[in-house]
Amino acid sequence: MNIILLSGGSGKRLWPLSNEVRSKQFVKLFKDENGEYESMVQRVYRQITTVDPEAKVTIATSKSQASAIKNQLGEKASICVEPCRRDTFPAIVLAATYLHDEMSVSEDAAVVVCPVDPYVDITYYEAVGTLQELAEAGEANLTLMGIEPTYPSEKYGYIIPQTGDSVSGVAEFKEKPDTETTKKYLAKHALWNAGIFAFKLSYLLNKAHSMIEFDDYRDLFNKYDKLTKISFDYAVVEKEPSIQVLRYNGDWKDVGTWNMMAEVMVDTTKGRVFLDETCENTNVVNELNIPILCMGCEDMVVAASGDGILISDKERSGYMKPYVEKIETDARYAEKSWGTYTVMDVQPGSMTVKLSMRAGECLTYHMHNYREEVWTVISGKGKAVVDGMEQMLRIGDVITIAAGCKHMVEAISDLDIIEVQLGDEISVSDKIKFTLE
After folding, report:
1. What is the pTM of this model?
2. Residue 411 maps to a domain
3. Which residue in 75, 127, 165, 181 has its CB near the most CB atoms, within 10 A?
């Protein structure tokens, strides 16, 4: 299978565990077959490759999420990075041209596009395999996968098929309706539109060239910020006359809120959490190094991280977005390609962070114009390079790096460093990268 996974989102729906650089698909609340915690993106990749070990998976994502994907999947999946956010049509076109021009996927090959964040069982990706086969057969230009509704939801758009067969032509699409209208749709065998579709690569490339003037992937990448923001549904799906839909009636959940996530979390609690015997139907996730005690809590979700603390009724948690948008804080935790970055303290003129690096990984050779850094090694072994001079790092070593000094770190073993940043202007933009000769 050739699969494009769309990984977007601003990280507000599972606040405070998710943020601008760690969206919900990177939060580890599930477990793999070995009982180890895994994220949604890790779970999805595992399920895909269980169904098809030879599957080629490309993740279309923003620059802010690329490091988290590399951290969690390594080199297993290809990553197509959007220079900026332009909605799903530009993102899919960019990923399709990336497959063709950079990954040498044939124009005759079928490609399936899926969101990265549904909670599903293995039958979902078996159906995705069937979807690709239908696209390869070429009886329609577009083949969708619609979800068999389990209740008359107002949250989803609907696909109205021509028949109730497992594969049917599409009669029309309907936007999110009210409950009474939804019941009428269900009588017509309507399906939830979950944004899953397949096509031959040649179809989308031709469609893209008819709508956007570009030569190849690199040309499109350079023009990306000028593209119109538009969804794939509006730009392509709802205008395509040759379209069919595959009915899927297996388990499928859109875990877009804490209430829904609580239904599928493998453990009721995670972290240092204590519930008394009177707590009922309460989920707690604690990423802090302090204990949380809950007493007499019913139908609640509690989540704590360096970004904040949420205490909410489960049903009410679905309405948190406008309140979270009023909370203006920089992300205190980020997954990087080399490990994790955790902000421990922020004061006027200083910021203290913990760098946890995996063995064999290294930071880029770089410098800062406006801040000094003091590193203290608290575990592991590594090697530092400061203005071309190498120094081995061991527990207890302290290095001071003046503003303007080029520096980098390589982790020989797993390596933890406390980094104190000092200066009147401490900013992520104050970083200039160099090549280490």
Report:
1. 0.87
2. yes
3. 127
